[in-house]
Every structure is written in C-alpha cells, then in structure tokens.
C-alpha cells in the first residue's frame, strides 16, 4: 500500500517531540484507513500499471432459452472452476468448500441457509503459513477438500491434500468458519482425497484414497479406500488402525479405475460409504456401499452407480458431463441433497470453464440414496426447496445464470473472486486513487513461480472481459495487460510492452507439445500494433464457445480487433490437461519475453 514520506510533513525544527509522537499516531491511522479504502494515492511510476475498472459479462444461450420460474434456480450453483465440492451443516448454516490447486488463497468457502443462495465468506487457507504453492504447476497444490462439523466438540474441520510445500495430507479447524481457520496439522498417511467422519459415540475416523499395497496393483488406475481411527485430542490418525475397506471399486473383476473422494454417512444405524469411481472424465460416476461398522466390511449397493452421465448420448442438448465426486447433506426441507462436480463443454466438446459445482435432490427413502434424475440428461434448472426465495446475484449472494460483474476497485476490500497464483495477492497489489495497482514481479506467466496477476474465472461459454488500464512501459522487459491461462504451458498474453521508442500491443499464444517434463513449449506472437498510451487503454477478451477474440480501445468506446479470431483450444482441459478452467488475469511482469519484430 502507499507510504507517506513523513519527513515532508513534519520537521524537528517546527514541532516538539511530544507533538511529533501524536502526529505519528494520527498519521499511522490515516495511512491504514486511506490505504484500505483506496482514498489515498502517492504518485506512482507510470511503468507500474493501474487498472481502474474490470467488467466480466456472461451470456450463455442456455439461460436465455430457459428463463427461471418463481420456484426455480439454475444448476450449476457455482459456475466456473469450483470443483470437488464438499458440504456440511450446523443448524441452519451450510458451508461448502471446493478445490483450489495452485491458486492463492486456497479452498474457497461458501455459506448458505437454504442451498440455493450462496455467499463466499472467504478462503480456508488464506495465509502462507497454511499453504505453500510457490513452486508448483497450476494443477498442483490443494486437491479435494472435505469439510465437516463435529457436534460433540462444536468444531469445524477441513481436511485435504496439498501437492506442494511438503505438507501432504492435513487438517485445519475452527469454531466459526466466519472467523478464520487454524494452522495445519500434518497427518501421517499417504494417498489423497481424505474425509473425516464423526460417529455418535464421539469417535472419529478418516477415509481416503490410496495405492494398493506394494506388489498388489493389478492395473493402471487400481486404487483402494482406507479408513483410520482419528485422535481428536492430538489431531492425528492412530498408528496401526488403518484398514482397506474398498479394493478397486464396486466390482474388482471389471477393473474399476480411480475409486476416490470417499465420504462416510450414518443413517438408520447403518454406515454408508460413498465414493467417486471412473476418474474425473467421461467415465466419472458416484457409487455407494453399506456396512454395520465404520471400519467395514462394506458391501456395494446393487443399483450402482447412483449418479453418472456416462451412458447418455454425446449429442444431447445442454450437455452436462463428468458428473461425480459428490457429497450429501440434509436440506432445509428435511430432504437430502448432493453437491458434485460436472462440466458443460462448448460446441467443440471442449471444457474451458473447468469443473463446476452442481446440486441435485437425493431420494433416500429406501436403503440406499439415489440422485434424482442423476442418471438421465441433467436440466439447467431445478425446483427450489419449499419456502426458499431465489436471491442469487442480489445483496452479496453469488450470481449464477447470465450476469455482469463489475469492479472499480474502490470498495476498500478486494472481492473474493479475485485470486492470485502461487502466492498472496497482497504481495503485488496496491490501492491507489485511480484503481488497483499491480506491481510487476520478475517472473512471467509461463514460469512456475508466483505471478503478479489478479485472476477471475471464466464462468460462461460466451463471455467478455474488459479492463481499463493506465500504463507506460519503459523497456522490452515491461509488459502489462490481460492474460488467459489454462496453465503455465497453455495461455494467451494480450499486453503492452515497449520496443525501441514505440509502445506495442501484442497477442501471444503459448502451447506445449507432448507431455511431462520433456514437453516442448512454444510461443508465437500472432499479431502486434503500435498503440497510443496518452490516455487509459481498454483491453477486452471475448469468446463465443471456442472462438476467442482480443480487442482494444484508446477512447473507451471503439474497439479494434487484434489477431482476428483465435481458438480457445489451448484454454481447455481437453488440450492442456490438468484440473482447472480458463483463468482471465490482470497481468504485469518485469520479465517479458514476448518481443515482436518491428518492420
């Protein structure tokens, strides 16, 4: 934030020591308040970009063609890259968490009283002491969080896996999710996707995905589910209590793959184990088992899977696919509901929005739960629980459907939708009178390092994102503008740099050939043009499905295209791989390597 030169304000020659102390105290308060509100601005170097406004607008046909009735709401409930949902309830309060990978802060957390209207209340992992992802690829970091409320000690637990920072599996806890979470307790087991279960007798258990014992792996994708007893006093699994409760999946003879994301529930004296099976892709599904004990043995239901879209026509309308990785909760109408991930591919069957959070009612009137309409093509809207009013997009509730999100960065607090990559936003942003300043790092978007970029998720197939920026690059190493990022190896950069004595706007495409560490990453400048920077410049990226366009305006009204129509293929998980969706960023760097050759 801005820092005043105190010596220009008061001098030893003009005021005595006592008065100086009082002024220092007053000044410190004023600096804090003004910095937080953006009301104070010290003159900044023009080589540091200031973004005065950003506008995201989504306009998908599915919402135009399916207007809501008074008793309806849209599905998914969280659009864009909000995957692997888990949910818990305390009284009338519901809390939902999702994966965040190498994004920072980590593990977005949402609150609701009715399962329809959701408010993001922050992030569970909002400190570097809780999360170190500074040197991991974008799809590393935090996977598949689980959140549970333990009524026996009135405490919330969030348990997850971090593929970075040496933490592995860990748990954090709190008495109140609105007030922040503890430092991590590292857990002594391998594997991924841990979940915690609190039994009525006060005992606790952890279940998770793991590899089969050494020498017992039968095929690629063969995994097991393990259970441990958990010591609530020490916040640690109890050594020697681990047991394999599912080997492979529902039917090992059929070689099921990637049994994962386990959750235990208790109903009518029985223990139910629900897991994802088939991998996060076209064969994804949800399956259920039952036992008389939390430690098994577990018997699969005869009607598995209880949720999947894998058997359906690939040409179905308003296609939702990859459904799975679910969690159950009792709703406000005393009916069960399940949250789960799914994707909505574009017209070329590519996934740019990433894996999103959906919800369906669950029929648990029989022995086993079944997702209502979870095995037939999903509809874009649902009936609300009785007595609920749809307030999405109003009064701070998270929007869905088609919507506009506009931010002039004067609110005094950064909206939770803005996130960093591999490090805190506070390390590179400052409030100024004109907007938000992004202080560039010596790293660019292609490096596996913390990047000075403020990201917003792509949440629609058809969208536009426009940012207004004031900037004067000083050299070829300076660049600021927009970036669209599926990963460090698959991205577009639409930014302004300086070549010789000219200010140049360029569009660069980066993509990798091959997989793994030996893949070859190539960057190509698709187009460039000299640009007038006497006034703020507006930069825009827009998409209609797979077709992306980048354009600019020097008067705030008339936009000119640069580079024509380009493919969003590299911004899809189909091409780029990984687990995220396209991230649109306000970007600055002092390590630019995109330098056009001027004629």
TrEMBL record:
Domain Beta-xylosidase C-terminal Concanavalin A-like, first and last residues per copy: 406-591
Pfam families assigned to the protein according to its UniProt record, in alphabetical order: GH43_C2 (PF17851), Glyco_hydro_43 (PF04616)
MF annotations from Gene Ontology: hydrolase activity
Domain of life: Bacteria
Keywords tagged on the record: Glycosidase, Hydrolase
Protein's UniProt keywords contain Nucleotide-binding: no
Keyword Cell division: no
Family of the protein in this entry: Belongs to the glycosyl hydrolase 43 family.
Name of the protein: Glycoside hydrolase 43 family protein
Species of provenance: Echinicola rosea
